[in-house]
Design brief:
Ribosomal protein S3 C-terminal domain; GMP Synthetase, Chain A, domain 3; alpha/beta; 24% strand; 4-stranded antiparallel β-sheet; 2 domains
Length: 268
């Protein structure tokens, strides 16, 4: 079922994290969830030209902390920080608690699934051919380090009468592998002949799970030569009875017949 399930929900608590990080009892949960949805819709409209990829909402101890991930943080902040202050006051009015807003820059917008999907939908609304927009996005993502990408568009493509679905893939996108870092996003293009949906999967490589440790290759230590080693190398292994004792002491040697005064000669 890796092809059908939501890639982010499938990997929650394994390699992905939640977009809303707070706890609530049964009485307040629905209201707080609806509040988060309203905040995200407001930020999507307000920061339409700021290339916002993700919004993370946290609620620590009667406060709210909102982190906005954008590839154009200057547009969010505005001249001398005026826009960010207006945004903060509006969010405080909507949420009813003090709000802290953080801006994080997306270093590679070409490999962010949400920004890719939004870029394709904007091109479709400007009547650019969908195949050209999809293939250009795939080439840019692969050029900047993505290991695989898949893009699917569905609807009345190019204004045809019957809706259809087309998708393209480059590289590999392992949807069943839990340790695979799959970035997934969707977007909609509102055209004159209907809505066109765009889905994007970006494979950025494997990530370490909670119980995994990084694999370090063992480097074999160089064998240092002994100080008094013979030039020929190590000695050959000794046989039984060799070395360490008097002559004739090895096992199985014939005993002398003569005494000590016969000069060591054997009896004739």
């Amino acid at each position: 079922m890796g092809q059908k399930i939501h890639p982010t929900g499938f990997r929650l608590a394994v390699s992905r994290n939640w977009a809303s990080r707070w706890y609530a009892n049964n009485n307040n949960f629905a209201a707080m969830l609806q509040e988060d949805i309203g905040v995200r819709e407001y930020l999507k409209k307000k920061l339409k030209n700021a290339s916002v990829g993700r919004v993370v909402i946290e609620r620590p101890a009667k406060n709210a902390r909102i982190t906005i991930y954008s590839s154009r943080p200057g547009v969010v902040i505005g001249k001398k920080g005026e826009d960010i202050e207006l945004l903060k006051s509006e969010l405080q009015r909507r949420m009813g608690v003090p709000v802290h807003v953080n801006i994080e820059e997306i270093r590679k917008p070409e490999t962010d699934a949400q920004l890719i999907a939004d870029s394709i939908t904007q091109q479709l609304e400007r009547r650019i051919m969908f195949r050209r927009a999809m293939k250009r996005a795939m080439q840019n993502a692969m050029r900047l380090g993505a290991q695989g990408i898949k893009i699917m568009s569905a609807g009345r493509l190019n204004g045809i009468e019957i809706a259809r679905t087309e998708w393209y893939r480059e590289g590999r996108v392992p949807l069943h592998t839990l340790r695979a870092d799959i970035d997934y996003a969707t977007s909609e293009a509102k055209t004159t002949y209907g809505i066109i949906g765009v889905k994007v999967w970006v494979y950025k490589g494997d990530t370490l799970g909670r119980n995994d440790a990084p694999v370090v290759e063992e480097v074999a230590e160089e064998k240092r030569p002994r100080r008094n080693a013979r030039p020929g190398g190590d000695r050959r292994p000794r046989r039984d009875g060799e070395g360490g004792g008097p002559a004739g002491a090895r096992r199985g040697a014939p005993r002398r017949a003569g005494g000590a005064g016969d000069g060591g000669k054997t009896g004739e």
